[in-house]
Design goal:
The complex is a heterotrimer.
Chain A (H helix, E strand, L loop, with lengths): L3 E7 L2 E7 L5 H8 L18 E4 L2 E4 L12 E3 L12 H8 L9 H14 L5 H7 L11 H18 L1
Parallel strand pairs in A: 1-5
Antiparallel strand pairs in A: 1-2, 3-4, 3-5
Chain B lengths: L8 H5 L13 H6 L14 E7 L5 E7 L1 H4 L4 E6 L13 H7 L4 E2 L5 E7 L2 H9 L2 E6 L6 H5 L22 E9 L2 H7 L2 E9 L11 E6 L5 E5 L4 H12 L6 E5 L15 H11 L3 E4 L2 H7 L5 E10 L5 E11 L7 H7 L8 E9 L14 H18 L4 H8 L18 H10 L1 H4 L7 E9 L4 E9 L5 E5 L7 H13 L6 E5 L16 H28 L6 E4 L2 E4 L11 E2 H5 L2 H4 L3 E9 L5 E11 L6 E11 L6 H20 L30 E6 L21 H13 L5 E2 L3 H11 L1
Parallel strand pairs in B: 1-12, 8-27, 10-11, 14-15, 18-19, 25-26
Antiparallel strand pairs in B: 1-5, 2-4, 2-6, 3-5, 7-15, 8-13, 9-10, 9-12, 13-14, 16-24, 17-18, 17-23, 20-21, 21-22, 24-25
Helix pairs in contact in B: 8-9, 12-21, 13-14, 16-17, 20-21
Chain C lengths: L1 E3 L4 H10 L3 E4 L5 H6 L7 E4 L9 E4 L2 E5 L4 H5 L2 H6 L1 H8 L4 H4 L4 H6 L8 H6 L3 E6 L2 E6 L4 E3 L2 E2 L6 E8 L5 E8 L10 E10 L2 E10 L6 E2 L1 H7 L6 H14 L10 H25 L3
Parallel strand pairs in C: 1-3, 2-3
Antiparallel strand pairs in C: 4-5, 5-10, 6-7, 6-10, 8-9, 11-12, 12-13, 13-14
Helix pairs in contact in C: 9-10, 10-11
Classes of the chains: A alpha+beta, B alpha+beta, C alpha+beta.
């Protein structure tokens, strides 16, 4: 089976890998690059556990073919922290008990980061609709929403 | 930022660590993407596997031709039912062994018929498609009515309980329970309300599909990495299905991405082990979402007929109930439990008949409090009707009848100390209940409980040279329990919880531990942790006495240090800290470690009462929840954030079960919605915040008063919402889910 | 299976002409689930997202031009477009989650051929046109003529949509799209209704009513339009709108809804959408 050579930026680093054309970008990230933070919960774009940023926009990587990553800037959950410094979302998720089993957490962190990058002061309703594409079965979403609210407060405080 | 109305335990009970909210020990890895779930694990040289599954609900398998598949590129091994031993029909694992791989008969659409291991997943899938299976369709049984009808075809000719009724039938269990004189009491009651209810199958909906990696070595020993609720269970069942000695299998638990009862059994591991054995390479086997929905263990569907008699003063005098649970193609305990889960009220006269019946659908599994949600939906709905007819506040009606310590459960056993009354009173006093119902909305209240279990757990606590501690258990963490273990150990030993490392060890490294189910981890494994810590404290005092040069009985453990009653301790008269003692472990007798094992008794029931305000769009039948409060008795909340998390998670699962989740089958028994698009679990925008009130009526049988909390939360929501819908729109819904088309149809009938 | 990403329309046209088993895609939000379930097995996947013309939104000479592969989120972020066509924007904005929004396109939503496509009814209500490229060059047809049945298009296999054209809405015009889904997000529409009206004071002078998910294709309801035109959207007119919409519905029973439910609810939603469209028309400036 022939594989395509794909060059892109992943979590800030120039990266290349091989993948068969029909491989999803999710599988390529997990299997070729060892970035297993993004998860497959459904494979059909209905759960958001595979969420990544592509040129700053949140996408389901299970719906992308690996070659679509060519030339793009990809950010996964592994790239949200700044070295040792957790992103405020990661910190508030921990402090706010916004994760239980944790399998949906990477997707939520990526989607929440995309939200706050675009809308630093979201209402509770805006947060809930922005995260409607991420399914969680453990938490009932309450602590996730509160943690996003708290991170927004911290991010605004840091930038003022 | 949390919504608990109770003050933390530590403020009321004087604990230092129990009742606080440290960041969970596995949290960092989970927020940076390092945590390893089973599908994240890879072994060098591993193969990928794919299944062939039955497209028929019931069919004889007359031939399986794997020759074309075996010749395809990348294919290294193929297995069918012939590759697994046939257990004796009396073996406890007989049913699960047939479920893991069909033997001659496909018993439901999705039943595993064969599996292939190949160098890539795509090759495995292609080869599976090339396996030629010849079926002879058999009559299928697809509903409770069909299953229980006289002369019904057998859904599973190998039903291990099929003679419950005499001749072979689809009946798996029959549990009658009775006390008092129901007919007399019902006849003389001032008011009788009777309704029929039905509930569709639903799925636990964990976001992580089942996955495992198995490496069966040439020496016949298998290493298994799996996401499960109990790796000792995985070991035991895998060994049983393969007819191997238990010690041939080592199971290492991966992080588990949700279970809720659905991962308390085995689907993949024996298949992966056999494929690995045949291929001589590790095998990775991961389910797709459609396989999870079609071929794992949903919660049963049910039909219930409930009649309750009451007097005008609000006394509930009689309960007459019939309930039938469809358990799928194999028997299960849920049928028995249906009747047992009804025990919140005194009901001096009670008659309950609970049936478990078989159909050609996947073998059901527990989904939190198995069978209780169905029973509570029915009974709590009728109690609400009675409250309305008697013009009584629904909480007051329940208070007038609430079970207390000593009242008999449906099985006839006295309740231990329980907190139902306290929960009802807490809801009544809550901000939610004290606030007026919003304009145009309806408010519903309902209660529920789960009796919880104890079972076997082991724990080892190792004190490290620097005074930190490692707490090793065998309970997979499905709700934050490892943080609770660390908190209890911190409290016992008197050291900072962040100096404790909780570890969930593999089957070769910790003593036997039963499955994490029945809300038992914090209760039973916690007890084992506490026992091990107490044994260590005794030993620490003994070592301290040696160091101090005093008698053992002169030393006590206080605030993480040994103090000597008479002499003030230590050479300088100071207490000897744990770290100071561990630093001298070698000199005083060797490593400091303790292990405790137990079969825990005294699990305390956890009661809950929920309240919802909601609005119904009478043009579309869509329900919008405006406010939701869950009140639950946790005994003692070791880590309140994770107790709240269990309450909120259970509530939202119940909300999904109440409003939109259901298995949709066609006439041939094929599931039409095996995906998250049309199997509709709640999304964030569907919900308000889930307010929580933790009630603490300590369980006398646990050193910290713990009651398991994981399951109760799913029991009240359906009736909570059903009662609110009735009060909002004047329609009594008796069929789950209470989806928009059904609500609109009821509104049309109401006129 | 092969992936190719042409950078011009001509390149794409040649690829489709040369490879009969090929399939174009933008967001792949329908393609991937269909491939996973075995319903679709293309030999070549032609990614349209590297063709600038298909990813551009422009407005000049009284006409909007929307590249067919433009992600819905790009359209919903366009404040000028949203101000003029809130209904089309609503429809586009309801195609799935934020993740889906960043990929799904009007072209894909239309060409998947689902009767429940959220962006289609309002586009038809605004008489949008589709510019189609194929072996013989380009041709333009009304969006209403693209889909002929569930999953069936009037396009040849080697044709694809390049862009959509929508003429500026006249002054005092407003549109709206409502749909019924069991959850607030993430569901396919069980029922959809788009209404566009032009108002002269309180009186409706022009109306378009288009229903989704209640027939094999999106369906216009001339009787509902006639009930609106000349009315002040009083109770009688709105009741007539609902009845006409229900009468025009020809839905099926499926796992998302029943005939009875869809028929009843489409009437309710058509009414509600008409009211919203009228408010917007009255509030709109020229």
């Amino acid at each position: 089976m022939s594989r395509t050579h794909i060059t892109c930026t992943v979590n800030g680093e120039a990266t290349d890998f091989l993948a068969a054309d029909g491989t999803s970008l999710l599988d390529a990230l997990r299997d070729e690059l060892g970035l297993t933070g993004s998860k497959e919960g459904c494979g059909t774009g209905d759960c958001g556990a595979c969420s990544i940023l592509v040129d700053g926009r949140v996408n389901c990587s299970c719906l992308m073919f690996a070659p679509e990553a060519e030339g793009r800037e990809i950010v996964t959950v592994e790239g949200i922290a700044d070295g040792d410094h957790l992103h405020p979302l990661q910190q508030t998720f921990l402090e706010g008990a916004a994760l239980q089993c944790g399998v949906c957490t990477p997707g939520f962190l990526v989607a929440a980061k995309a939200l706050l990058d675009e809308n630093p002061d979201p209402t509770e309703t805006e947060i809930r609709y922005a995260l409607a594409g991420n399914l969680c079965r453990c938490t009932g979403y309450d602590k996730i929403v509160r943690s996003v609210q708290e991170a927004a407060v911290q991010l605004k405080g840091a930038s003022s | 930022m949390t919504a608990t109305e109770n003050p933390p335990v530590s403020e009321t009970k004087g604990y230092t660590w129990v009742g606080t909210r440290p960041i969970r020990h596995d949290g960092y890895d989970k927020v940076v993407g390092k945590a390893r779930f089973a599908a994240d694990l890879n072994l060098p040289g591993q193969l990928h596997a794919a299944y062939v599954r039955s497209p028929h609900a019931h069919a004889r398998i007359t031939a399986i031709d794997t020759s074309a598949a075996e010749a395809m590129p990348g294919v290294k091994a193929v297995v069918t039912g012939d590759d697994f031993p046939m257990l004796d029909i009396t073996d406890a694992n007989y049913d699960v062994s047939l479920n893991v791989m069909a033997r001659g008969t496909a018993l439901y659409n999705g039943h595993a018929i064969a599996a292939v291991a190949a160098t890539t997943k795509a090759e495995a899938v292609a080869a599976a498609a090339a396996i030629d299976v010849t079926y002879e369709e058999l009559p299928s049984v697809l509903s409770i009515e069909a299953s229980m009808a006289d002369g019904a075809p057998l859904a599973n000719e190998q039903n291990t309980q099929k003679f419950v009724g005499g001749d072979p039938t689809n009946i798996s269990t029959h549990t009658p329970l009775e006390r008092g004189d129901v007919d007399e009491a019902m006849g003389s009651a001032d008011l009788v309300v009777e309704r029929e209810f039905d509930c569709a199958h639903v799925h636990q909906g964990y976001i992580e599909p089942h996955a495992c990696v198995v490496d069966t070595g040439a020496d016949g020993k298998a290493s298994v990495w799996a996401s499960s609720q109990g790796h000792f269970m995985v070991r035991a069942i895998t060994a049983a299905v393969l007819d191997w000695e238990t010690s041939r299998i080592k199971v290492t638990p991966a992080e588990i991405g949700g279970g809720f009862g659905g991962k308390t059994t085995v689907y993949l591991e024996p298949v992966a082990a056999r494929l690995s054995e045949k291929a001589g390479r590790p095998v990775k086997l991961v389910m797709g979402r459609d396989e999870v929905l079609k071929a794992t263990g949903p919660a049963p569907g049910a039909k219930l007929r409930i009649k309750i008699g009451a007097n005008n003063d609000g006394e509930l005098v009689a309960l007459d109930g019939w309930m039938a649970y469809e358990l799928g193609a194999f028997g299960d305990f849920a049928g028995m439990v249906g009747a047992m889960s009804v025990a919140s009220y005194k009901f001096p006269n009670l008659k309950l008949e609970s049936w478990g019946v078989l159909t050609n659908k996947p073998k059901t599994a527990a989904y939190r409090a198995p069978s209780a949600p169905h029973a509570a939906f029915a009974i709590e709905s009728i109690i609400d009707e009675i409250a309305q007819k008697l013009d009584m506040d629904p909480i007051d009606l329940r208070l007038a009848n609430a079970a207390v310590e000593g009242d008999l459960t449906a099985m006839g056993m006295p309740h231990p100390k329980i907190g139902f009354v306290e929960c009802l009173e807490a809801l009544k006093a809550s901000d939610h209940y004290q606030s007026p119902v919003p304009e145009g909305a309806g408010r519903g209240v309902a209660a529920g409980f789960w009796f919880n279990i104890g079972e076997q757990s082991s724990a080892t606590v190792n004190l490290n040279e620097d005074g930190t501690a490692t707490v090793i258990t065998g309970s997979p963490d499905i709700g934050g329990s490892r943080a609770s273990m660390a908190l209890m150990a911190a409290e016992e030993l008197g050291i900072d919880v962040m100096r404790i490392t909780p570890v969930i060890a593999d089957t070769e490294s910790v003593g036997f531990t039963d499955v994490t189910e029945g809300s038992r981890a914090t209760f039973a494994t916690g007890k084992a942790v506490v026992e091990a810590c107490r044994e260590l404290k005794t030993e620490l005092c003994r070592r301290a006495a040696q160091i101090m040069g005093v008698e053992e009985d002169q030393v006590a453990w206080v605030d993480g240090a040994a103090v000597s009653a008479g002499h003030g301790g230590g050479e300088a008269g100071d207490p000897l800290t744990l770290a100071a003692i561990t630093a001298q472990a070698k000199r005083t007798g060797g490593p400091l470690t303790a292990t405790a094992s137990l079969n825990a008794a005294g699990a305390g029931p956890s009661f809950a009462v929920h309240c919802a305000d909601l609005a119904v769009d009478e043009g579309t039948g869509v329900t919008t929840i405006l406010r939701y409060t869950a009140v639950q008795d946790a005994g003692t909340a070791i880590h309140p954030s994770y107790v709240e998390g269990q309450m909120q998670g259970g509530s939202v699962q119940g909300i999904g079960w109440a409003l939109n989740e259901e298995y949709i089958y066609d006439d041939a028994g094929e599931m039409l919605n095996p995906g998250f698009l049309d199997y509709r679990i709640p999304v964030a925008s569907d919900l308000p915040m889930i307010e929580t009130v933790i009630v603490e009526v300590p369980n006398p049988s646990h050193p910290y008063g713990v009651r398991g909390v994981g399951e109760t939360g799913i029991v009240p929501p359906m009736a909570t919402l059903g009662n609110a819908i009735d009060r909002a729109a004047g329609v009594r819904m008796t069929s789950l889910p209470m989806s928009p088309p059904k609500v609109l149809a009821a509104i049309n009938d109401r006129g | 299976m092969q992936y190719v990403a042409p950078t011009t329309v001509d390149e794409a046209r040649s690829l489709l002409a040369d490879h009969p088993g090929s399939r174009v895609f933008a967001g792949a939000t329908d393609v991937v689930p269909q491939m996973r379930s075995g319903r679709s097995e293309p030999s070549v996947l032609v990614d349209l997202k590297r063709i600038d013309r298909l990813m551009t939104v422009g407005h000049s000479d009284g006409q909007w031009t929307i590249g067919a592969a433009t992600p819905a989120a790009e359209l919903t972020r366009n404040a000028d477009f949203r101000a003029m066509f809130p209904g089309i924007t609503e429809g586009a904005g309801l195609i799935g989650s934020d993740q889906i929004q960043n990929r799904s396109s009007l072209g894909g939503n239309l060409c998947n051929g689902s009767p429940a496509a959220d962006s289609v009814p309002a586009m038809i209500a605004s008489e949008a046109r589709a510019v189609i490229a194929g072996a013989d060059g380009e041709r333009t047809i009304p969006v209403a003529d693209v889909v002929t049945g569930p999953g069936q298009l009037s396009l040849a296999d080697s044709e694809f949509i390049v862009e959509f054209e929508i003429d500026d809405a006249p002054a005092n015009t407003g549109d709206a799209y409502l749909r019924m889904t069991p959850r607030t997000e993430m569901d396919i529409a069980v029922v959809g209704a788009a209404v566009r009206v032009t108002m002269d004071g309180d009186t409706c002078t022009e109306a378009r009513v288009v229903l989704g998910a209640v027939a094999p294709t999106a369906v216009r309801v001339p009787d509902a339009e006639a009930a609106l035109v000349g009315s002040t959207l009083d109770e009688a007119a709105l009741t007539a709108v609902a009845e006409a919409a229900s009468a025009a519905a020809n839905p099926i029973d499926d796992k998302r809804g029943t005939v009875a439910y869809r028929t009843q609810v489409v009437g309710t939603l058509a009414q509600r959408a008409a009211v919203i469209a009228a408010e917007r028309a009255k509030g709109a400036t020229s």
